[in-house]
Amino acid sequence: MKNRTLGNTGEQLSAIGLGCMGMSHGYGTPDDMESIATLHRALDLAINFWDTADMYANGVNEELVSRVLMPNRDKVFIATKFGFRHKEGVSGIGGLPGTYFDGSPAWMKQAVEHSLKRLRIDTIDLYYAHRIDPNVPVEEMVGAMADLVKEGKVRYLGLSEASAASIRKAHAVHPIAALQSEYSLLTRDVEKEVLGTVRELGISLVPYSPLARGLITNTLDVTQLDAKDFRRTLPRYNDENRDNNQSLASAFADLAADKQLTAAQLALAWVLAQGDDIIPIPGTKKRKYLEENAGAVEVVLSKSDLEAIEALLARYPNTGPRYSEGALKLVNR
Ligand SMILES: NC(=O)c1ccc[n+]([C@@H]2O[C@H](COP(=O)([O-])OP(=O)(O)OC[C@H]3O[C@@H](n4cnc5c(N)ncnc54)[C@H](OP(=O)(O)O)[C@@H]3O)[C@@H](O)[C@H]2O)c1
């Protein structure tokens, strides 16, 4: 495995990480045995940058990850997040009934204790605010997060889906090591302003959903998703965009095959090619996908490969929004 450096921290992380969310939350039926085997395989492959969050299956994902993390603590750089909360009766954010966001210092101080307990560790390597709370000044939130660093509960701080302005305000209070935001061939919002800002400040971009939640792999039949699969709530998987997106994925897989790659490998190679300061965290609960994705790190794309990808994307412009209207209100804040 190749390494990349996290922001200005000097920490060497695997050039691709492992997104653990789908092992317990959002994407179909969990298979804990295969997920545990996948985490062990990640150790073998030296994929050491693991990503979870307190909201994934209400803490169950942190507990699952802990089963391999705890006995291998020195081999893993663990990231988790706080802010989304659950309360029955709340209408919920974008497809997640009962979910609301709380970025207050009071909640964060409780949330970090819950995460440490579920992960069964003393210190979280990278602690993200899962979103910027419109009701809490970013300086106040990051100030409280910085206290966790002083207390030794957290080593580095991160933000997720923050705007350029919020990133600047946050970084002035305490160094931010990583911004985790959606970035893939289908979601390029960060290219407008945010990517330039994090580069200027020496912050790594950690792209989540770098495979467009599986869509770009051309292995997903979006008409066959489980009734409870979170992707059913996303416009890209719905009637109006489905045909465009499945045609795009199919054409992309043909392009990848010309290079003896899978679509997933070409999609990850594209993300990796956007800069050495970018560390994507593809998500999987399966060893075979993990192994395949690890291969993307070895792929070198030429200028003409990148041009061919752009030309293909331009043929299928109607991909649809990445989130429902409610969830979009919480990004780029
Ligand atoms: N900060 C945020 O707000 C936020 C939001 C979303 C996600 N995340 C984090 O980012 C991580 C990655 O994002 P993601 O999981 O949403 O999306 P992703 O990595 O774009 O895609 C995951 C999906 O692709 C499938 N897949 C993975 N590798 C594959 C391969 N080689 N061939 C075919 N299919 C493949 C997975 O299948 P299987 O499930 O069957 O393995 C899963 O359905 C998450 O696990 C989570 O930790 C953060």
Q: What key phrases describe this protein's structure?
A:
333 residues, alpha/beta, TIM Barrel, 7-stranded parallel beta sheet, binds NADP nicotinamide-adenine-dinucleotide phosphate
Detailed description of the structure:
This protein has 333 residues and is α/β, with parallel strands linked by helices. It is built from eleven helices and eleven strands. It has one domain: NADP-dependent oxidoreductase domain (TIM Barrel), CATH 3.20.20. Helix content is 37%, strand content 14%. It has a seven-stranded parallel sheet with strand order 3-4-5-8-9-10-11, covered by helices on one side. It has a two-stranded antiparallel sheet with strand order 1-2. Strands 6-7 form a two-stranded antiparallel ribbon. Helix 5 packs parallel to helix 6. The site of NADP nicotinamide-adenine-dinucleotide phosphate (NAP) has 28 residues, from helix 9.
Integer average pLDDT: 96
Tell me which CATH architecture applies here.
Alpha-Beta Barrel
CA-atom Rg in angstroms: 19 Å
Strand line-up in the sheet with most strands: 3-4-5-8-9-10-11
Count the domains.
1
The number of helical segments is 11
Uncertain ranges: none
Major beta sheet summary: 7 strands, parallel
**CATH C-level name:** Alpha Beta
Share of residues in strands? 5-15%
Number of strands: 11
> Kindly, what is the distance between the CA atoms of the first and last residues, rounded to a whole number of angstroms?
34 Å
Hetero compounds: NADP nicotinamide-adenine-dinucleotide phosphate
The global form is globular
Order of helices and strands: EEEHEHEEEHEHEHEHEHHHHH
Fold-level CATH name: TIM Barrel
Q: How would you name the CATH homologous superfamily?
A: NADP-dependent oxidoreductase domain
What would you call the structural class? alpha/beta
